[in-house]
Design goal:
Organism: Bombyx mandarina (Wild silk moth)
Helix content: 25-40%
GO molecular function, one term: structural constituent of cuticle
Largest sheet: none
Protein name: Cuticle protein 1
Radius of gyration: 28 Å
Pfam family, one: CPCFC
Strand content: under 5%
Structural class: mainly alpha
Number of strands: 0
Number of helices: 4
Order of helices and strands: HHHH
Shape: rod-shaped
InterPro entries: CPCFC (IPR033778)
Length: about 90
């Protein structure tokens, strides 16, 4: 009796199990048919997160330094007097 019950429950579990398509990791989209497009863009097909700087290179320190240069201290001005140089008040 328990063998038949176990077989029926096993077949039911297999029949109800969700199958994810190739390239979609269960950790990325747990509600499989209703996936968030942003979540799919943030992960590789293997489920590894893509670093933020790959999707948005503007946050790289190099890009930030090129777009917003840091002002230089004058030659005769001691840096200890004004750590926020252009704004010394």
């Amino acid at each position: 009796m328990y063998g038949k019950l176990f077989a029926i429950l096993t077949l039911t579990a297999v029949a109800l199990a969700r199958e994810y398509p190739a390239g979609l990791h269960p950790a990325i989209c747990p509600n499989y048919p209703f996936c968030d497009a942003d979540a799919l863009a943030k992960y590789t097909p293997q489920g590894m997160p893509i670093p933020e700087w790959v999707r948005n290179p503007a946050i790289l320190p190099i890009a930030r330094a090129a777009s917003n240069p840091v002002p230089k201290y004058p030659a005769d001005f001691p840096a200890a007097l004004c750590p926020n140089y252009p704004y010394c008040w």
